[in-house]
Amino acid sequence: MRFTETGLSGAYVLDIERREDSRGFFGRSFCVNELTAHGLNPKVVQTNVGFSRAKGTLRGMHLQIAPHEEAKLVRCTMGSVYDVIVDLRPGSPTHRKWFGLELSAANRKALYVPEGFAHGYQTLEDDSEITYQTSEFYAPGSARGVRYNDAAFGIVWPLAVTSISDADAAWQDYAGRLE
Predict the structure, then answer these.
(1) Which of 15, 47, 48, 10 is nearest to 31 (CA)?
(2) In the chain, is it the N or the C terminus that has fewer CB atoms within a 10 Å radius of its CB?
(3) Which of 124, 119, 129, 125 is nearest to 76 (CA)?
(4) Which residues are catalytic?
(5) H or E segment and range at residue 12
(6) Inter-CA distances, 170 with 17, 77, 122, 152, 177, Å
(7) Which of 92, 74, 96 has its CA nearest to residue 13?
(8) What pLDDT sits at residue 43?
(9) By three-state DSSP, how is residue 30 classified?
């Protein structure tokens, strides 16, 4: 696997290191040893799938707080999404900074999201699906979120939002409230 730093401490874009031949290619998309060597949390307790029917659907921005903070490894398995993370770790030099990139079935990239980051995505085409592995089980009492369009972050989404859940639309502005 190839690890590329995002500019947000502890967050990486992962690419499959391909071994190609006439049949196609083979490569690792997950390796405990390689994640550990980069100082990342390799623990996986749950794998989730999110499917969205319509282009422009937005999901996020979600996180879990202590004691159930979770790291995520996110990959798009069908279609394409614009995946975004925001560093919400108090005291971090990149606190409130965001990073976004396209994840698609075609580019096979993955995003490693450290504990203490909010995560969300917008579908770039109809019938898009992501899968993500988490280091902690979903804990409703620790689930939190921030507004996808909060001026404190200035996230630039590529499309107009065509669909968002009532819960995601109702998240309050950040204003340091999770600190």
Answers:
(1) 15
(2) C
(3) 129
(4) 62, 132
(5) strand 12-15
(6) 40, 28, 17, 16, 15
(7) 74
(8) 98
(9) coil
Note the pLDDT of residue 3: 98
- Looking at residue 12, its pLDDT comes to 98
What integer pLDDT is reported at residue 58 of this predicted model? Answer: 98
- If phi > 0 it is left, if psi is from -120 to 50 it is alpha, else beta; for residue 91 that is left
d(CA 150, CA 147): 5
Predicted local distance difference test score (pLDDT) of residue 161: 98
Query: What are the structure tokens assigned to 71, written together?
Result: 């790291």
Q: What is the pLDDT of residues 162-178, one digit of tens each?
A: 999 999 999 999 986 66
Q: Which residue has the tokens 């997950």?
A: 30
d(CA 100, CA 93): 18
In the predicted model, residues of the chain with pLDDT beneath 50 are none
Which structure tokens are listed for 31?
């390796």
Helix (H) or strand (E) holding 36: helix 32-37
- What is the per-residue DSSP string for 81-139? EEEEEEE--TT-TTTT-EEEEEEETTT--EEEE-TTEEEEEEESSSSEEEEEEESS---
Q: What is the pLDDT of residue 176?
A: 63
Tokens describing residue 169: 């639309």
